[in-house]
Amino acid sequence: MEYETINILELLPQKPPFVMVDTLKYFDFVVTRTGLKVTADNIFVENCEFSECGVIENIAQTCAARIGYINKYLSSSDVKIGFIGSIRDLRFEDLPKVGDELNTTIEVVNEVFSITLVNAKVEIGDRLIASCEMKIAISDING
Asked: What are the structural domains of the chain?
């Protein structure tokens, strides 16, 4: 399947201007990748830098895109709302700048009922920008 042709808004409960992923690049049940081009009008950009909060939201929305893809394309159900349950071992190597293309990868470590634990990394090209472990809780509420 050509993941990048999917309208990302179909997979996310978030709506503009709070969308922090542009494209779904890859999906399987363990690994999901998304892309985001940082633009000057992004609500998390200040002084031409994409903030730490923006990077964290980008990771969370990569998790949301994974669940949205599963719901919409594999389960034929509605997109659900998720919540960040916890973040551990958060590390920033650098902050992205306007014009940078972020590639965010999550790898599912464990999934029990509505809780998913992932390892995440955000890269620009082959340069690591940020990494963490994130726990996401999925509600029964439709997005």
From this structure: 3-142 (3.10.129.10)
Torsion of CA 88, 100, 17, 76, to 10 degrees: -70
Q: Are strands 127-142 and 115-124 parallel, antiparallel or unpaired?
A: antiparallel
> 117: which strand partners?
110, 135
User: Using CA atoms, how far apart are residues 133 and 70, in angstroms rounded to an integer?
Assistant: 21
Strand order in the sheet with 127-142: 23-27, 31-37, 101-112, 115-124, 127-142, 80-92
Can you tell me the distance from the alpha carbon of 106 to that of 21, in angstroms, rounded to the nearest whole number?
13
**Which ranges constitute the DSSP H helices of 1-92?**
52-69
Tokens encoding 119? 């390892």
Residues in contact with 74: Cβ distance below 8 Å, sequence separation at least 6, in sequence order: none
Q: Residue 22: what residue type?
A: D
Pairwise pLDDT comparison (135 vs 2), residue with the higher score: 135
Confidence (pTM): 0.96
Residues in a beta bridge with 111: 116
Mean residue pLDDT across the chain: 96
